[in-house]
Amino acid sequence: MVGLQAPGTFTRSRCRGASLSVIFRQFVLFIDRHDPATRQAAIMIDGKIAVIGAGIAGLACARRLIAADVHSIVVDKGRAPGGRLATRVVTLDLGECHIDHGAQYFTAREAGFKRQCVNWLAEGIIEPWTATSQGGDMRYVGRPGMSAIGKAMASGIEIIQGSRVTTLSRRAGSWHLGFADGSGLDGLGAIVLAIPPAQAASLLETVAPGLAEEARSVGLAPCWAGICAFDPPGEPGFKALRIADGGALGWIARSRDGTAWIAHATPDWSRRHLESDAKELAPLMEAAIRTWLPEAGETRFVSLHRWRYALVERAAGTPFAWDESLQLGLCGDWRLGARVECAWESGDALGHALVRTSP
Ligand SMILES: Cc1cc2nc3c(=O)[nH]c(=O)nc-3n(C[C@H](O)[C@H](O)[C@H](O)COP(=O)(O)OP(=O)(O)OC[C@H]3O[C@@H](n4cnc5c(N)ncnc54)[C@H](O)[C@@H]3O)c2cc1C
Q: What is the number of the ligand 1 atom nearest to the C-alpha of 59?
């Protein structure tokens, strides 16, 4: 159902859908269309909202929906929620190690995300990150790893994990999601895409070419991440180092438990080797890591992970996009910038717009 009404009017009603077990809600909500100050439009949603992507943006959006009792479901292709806030559990001689191979730490600059961080700190979900003594913003990490954040945010949300959405189609005013395994979800009132822009663009191509074009205009750099464990691990005199020497690596840090090293290749190096096989690249990555750890001993573990869409290079510049006639929204870090906070802000802003009940 689509509706544009004069700002200031609000209606809310309930009706029965095809299934008696489902109560469809009708919301007439007023939002800025990307610019709170200038363009007020009404969002009217009739039916369940599906959020595609359980990264921090999709989860922040879903948390807003669930808090307002809006019927919603999240679908993600990964095994666990969190997206690029990811932790790999590796079994080494010393036992299980938790190694963050995506985002390394995050900062909170805006009031909303600062409040969120205060809550997460109080709940023991995050802790301050003190590996470097540089001044500036306080840095945080998940406890015991970054994936704890996605796990905590997903609590109480209906999520389908391990399902890659391959098609979006609209029939008789409602949305259908098709999954890679041939199954799908029907009868959805609205869709939120909280996935990287290249992946969003390919889903939107036929149903929303305008939004697809906007998504394609945004750029994300890839990143090859390498995890290495050595015995002894090496004592280079730093726990984390940002590197700008024109070589393969842009970042190297010791895992919080001290057992392994995580390194991120630069965007240039990652692009050059984007389609290479992880096994072939492993010796190159190991050698690059060893140049920073001259006293590292025997290699105990090497593993590489390719982040095809890692860091935003060109952002869309607005917190989210919403197409009223299609009942289709886009959010994610790529709307605002290459930071965890940007992803949270984008998802939170779209969720807030979807549940706002007064102008
Ligand atoms: C190597 C690396 C280092 C980083 N370092 C930092 C840092 O130090 N500090 C910082 O603040 N930020 C850092 N970032 C960026 C930060 O991780 C991201 O900005 C943020 O996590 C993005 O969240 P998101 O929800 O927008 O997207 P994502 O986390 O990418 O979530 C998108 C989700 O969509 C799912 N998905 C995609 N396509 C489909 C589909 N077709 N069907 C179903 N599900 C789908 C994916 O599985 C994923 O879970 C780093 C990122 C990387 C990769």
A: 25
The residue whose CB lies within 8 Å of the most ligand 1 atoms, and thus the one to mutate among 76, 84, 207, is 84
In this model, does residue 226 exceed pLDDT 60?
yes
Fold type of domain 12-82+151-218+315-355:
FAD/NAD(P)-binding domain (3.50.50)
Long-range contacts at 162-165 (CB < 8 A, ≥ 24 apart): 162/76, 162/77, 162/78, 162/79, 163/75, 163/76, 163/77, 164/77, 165/52, 165/75, 165/77, 165/203
CB 165 less than 6 A from any atom of ligand 1: yes
What's the pLDDT score for residue 137?
87
For 91-150, what is each residue's pLDDT tens digit? Answer: 887 788 899 999 999 999 999 999 999 999 999 999 999 887 667 889 999 999 999 999
In the chain, domain spans: 12-82+151-218+315-355, 219-314
Tell me the CA–centroid distance for residue 85 and ligand 1, in Å: 6
Give the global pTM: 0.89
